[in-house]
Amino acid sequence: MATGIITKDHAVPHTSTNPANLNESVELFVREYDGTKPSHSSEAVLMLHGRSIPALPGFDLEHGRHDKYSWSKDLADAGYDVFIMDLQGSGRSTRPKMKNPCNANPAQQQDILVPNPLSAPCSPDYTSQLNNSQSDWDELDTVIKFIQHQSGVSKVRLIGWSAAAFVMGPYAVQHPQNVESLLLLAPIFPPQGRASKSGTDFGAPVALPVSTPAALFGFPMNLGTKDAFASSWDRELHCANQREPGMVDVVWDATMDNDAVGSGWGPMEDGVAQGVNRIRNSYWWGWNSATVPLHGTLGGDVPVCIVYGELDTQANTPVASGPLLHFSVPALYEAIPGTKKLMFRVACTGHLMVWERQSKFLHHMSRQWLKQGTVEGLSSGSYFRDEDGVIMPAG
């Protein structure tokens, strides 16, 4: 990668609209990799994480030889001013109500937090979900305005991974004047997902914060363990050399490096805590088959490119999972009303494509998409890319 990339960390000020710390001044972590070439105007890209993996290491896995998995640096190397961000409750941004281990999902405490750091399970002192769709949209808007001021651009190219689709998709529909294009990797999309107040807009469907049912929303924080992370990734491995050896340790260690609190929780090994991933408990709405077509924005004023792995069992789930947990990437593609839409299903990779062998294609195609609005000369349609790199119309 080029040595001319300038790296800066920003603490972007934001007045919280999250009920857990409403109206408080908070800081949103944003890292910038400015690869703008001399005598070139700035072209800004903003990358947003999903539900459980923060911006670091999601978009920049810094670990010796594994630097090749840095999607953000690859795009900066192509000349873009790249920003990666953490929403509240993730990574290095403010984490309201998440320092107290009693605020973790009560159903997880005994198995994960006893005896470290808890001697016994305890009740949350904040009995509601943490973030919601509106607070996420507001935080994204604050960072986009910061980028517009910082880089002098009017529109920003958006890239979202996994559950970032709940944030960037509706934001693009509501604020197309701020969005140049949208690229979604393994987007989570429930066709029959939670509706907004009217069913055809983006208003909150219920009073916030949400606390019932208590088993789902009566706490602000879920927990992820290294064993669960490894098992989830392993289930999607079906091809030779799909993932390099040792990558689970590399990614988990990098995730823990960005959580000084959670890294000290959980089972002990040789006197050292294995660490726990603190995951914000979210209440999302307004991302479904009724809202995606609104105003004809997606695929029109905002071109959309979708990429997902054929082995991805997180972004594609059975209908029997129920309306809130049935996810379908092809259904999202079909719901986008405009013609400026592309979709690639990629062989021999899963939900964690960013750290697998096929990450090379992800970097390659995203460079083309950002520069030209096309990939391998294709501007619209749904395609399958096989293990040898041959692209053909999806069957």
From TrEMBL:
Keywords, sorted A to Z:
Hydrolase
Q: Which Gene3D superfamilies match?
A: alpha/beta hydrolase (3.40.50.1820)
Signal peptide range: none
One CC-aspect GO term: membrane
User: Do you know which SUPFAM superfamilies this protein is assigned to?
Assistant: alpha/beta-Hydrolases
Domain spans labelled AB hydrolase-1 = 45-356
Instruction: Read off the InterPro entries from this record.
Output: AB_hydrolase_1, AB_hydrolase_fold, AB_hydrolase_sf
Q: What domain of life?
A: Bacteria
| Gene Ontology molecular-function annotations | hydrolase activity
UniProt xrefs under PANTHER family:
HYDROLASE, PUTATIVE (AFU_ORTHOLOGUE AFUA_2G14860)-RELATED (PTHR43798:SF33), MONOACYLGLYCEROL LIPASE (PTHR43798)
Q: Provide the protein name.
A: Alpha/beta hydrolase
